[in-house]
Amino acid sequence: METESEPYVRLATLRQLHQVMADMNTARSLADTLQTVADGIVSGLGYELAAVNLVRPDGDLVVAAFAGNSAAEALITGRVGSRASWERRLNMGEAWDDLRFIPHTEGWVLDDDDVPQWHTGGPEPRFEDEWHPADRLFAPMYTPSVKGSCGELIGVISVDRPRNGRRPGAWGREALQMYAFQAAIAISNARLRANMQRALVRLEREQQALRASEESFRQAFEYAPSGMAIAEMGGDQHGRILRTNDALCRLLGRPASAMRRYSFSDLVHPEDIGTLLRTSAEGGRAELRLGRRDGTYVWVSLRNSVVADAADGPRFLLTHVEDIEERKRRELQLAHRASHDSLTGLPNSAELRSRLSARLCQRPQSLPAGAADSLDAAYGEYPVDHPAALDGTGHGFDLHARGPYDAFDHHVHTVAPEAGTDDGTKGLAVLFCDLDGFKSINDRFGHNAGDAVLIEVARRLSRGVRDGDTVARLGGDEFVVLANGLGKADAQDLAVRLRNEIIQPVRVDGRAMRVGASFGIGWAHCGMTADEVLKSADERMYVEKRSRPKQHRRAG
Question: Which residues form the PAC domain (predicted)?
Answer without folding.
Answer: 284-336
